[in-house]
Amino acid sequence: MRRAPGKLCLNRREITVKDAAQLTGALKGNKSSAHILLVDDDASLLRLLGMRLESRGFHVTTADSGRMALDRLAIERPDLVLSDLRMDEMDGLALFQEIQRQAPGLPVIILTAHGSIPDAVSATRQGVFSFLTKPVDRDELFTAIDEALLQAPAASDGDDAWRSAIITRSPQMERILDQARMVAGADVSVLVSGPSGSGKELLARALHDASPRADKPFVAINCGALPEQLLESELFGHARGAFTGAISQHEGLFQAADGGSLFLDEIGDMPLSLQVKLLRVLQERQVRPLGSTTSVPVDVRIISATHRDLDRAMHEGDFREDLYYRLNVVNLRLPPLKERAEDVPLLAKHLVSQAAARHKPFVKGFSTEALNLLASSSWPGNVRQLVNVVEQCVALTSAPIIPEALVAQALVAEENALPSFNDARASFERGYLIKVLKITEGNVTQAARIAGRNRTDFYKLLGRHELEPSSFKAVAKSDS
Q: Are residues 38 and 52 in contact, defined by beta-carbon separation less than 8 angstroms?
């Protein structure tokens, strides 16, 4: 690529060599220890460039192919990727595209001895941070690296206090946390989805702590835990005398969270009538307490969460489409614990140390066999269930090291434990629907009549529990 004398061409601006030296000096010490993943299928160039980067103080991991680079990325996320363009099997641009899928926002610089204007334009349009030609000028290379690290503070600033409550080494979870860190400063609404007990409120709080609102309130409420009128009063507040028992004015959670974040847990359980009022508050950025004629301006970031399929609920008419799109600007989807089995021993060790500090300081941890049993369990209750099992084990152990037998006992006890109200209700609904469908041999009209529901509502219930009436007709025929 051609450049003016004394200038270095980056993908978005030009700076002089003098400026580059000043920038390098300013960054030295706080960025020079960054982790760089270096990718090149030429072993000698890989070794030579790696030595050059290490002499500057960078921590360097090398890979001689795109596939090896992705394997390295799955183990540990670097702060920056420096890759050759022309490689067998997977070239630099294909590698970049896969990195964007697995680790959005991770800066990539591409090097090539076959540099051309079309290649550079294609690379930078796709989001590659910089495109440099070989042999690479030392100052140009280090300036591009320093600029890229400045553009990616989340990956290189080393400040993990915002996410300290989330214990993980799962690449899947790390990608979610990277996305949360990126969106934290954007001040857009975020929907956190995932199964019950997977840590949605922890992620919501971490997102708040990573945002410019971190020094303001984080207020949480479970939308499925309160009756409709009480939920409305809690969210929006009420004036004195607004309803029977309202003996004084009450400030709602929107006002309590002003300047900060409001976390609406289980938003999928919010009644439709309240969804309309919530949408109005989000659109107008002001809230009118129950029984009041005056609206109050509010500045609140909404983070919501649900274990339900809101897209399906929206299409079935259980959730307003306009509210869905306003809340779901960014979706962060937490995996169940069984999909991050590598985190189970790590979480168990952390939880046992916490429980021991509270109850039995002599408890030091789990035996190897006990950890293996924990890691191989299915965890239908996710992290919440793991917490319960660890608490039981600590409460019942009389030895410093918790044995496998005690873990097995706790797992059985947890399976027989009383379920939460929401889980019990869902289980009853599903069992009831199956029973009436068996009785009516899949006839929805008759089944709805027995249940005392209209056909539309009954179909919604079937959809919520993923039950297909036609399968019960087949069962009835085979039984006969």
A: no
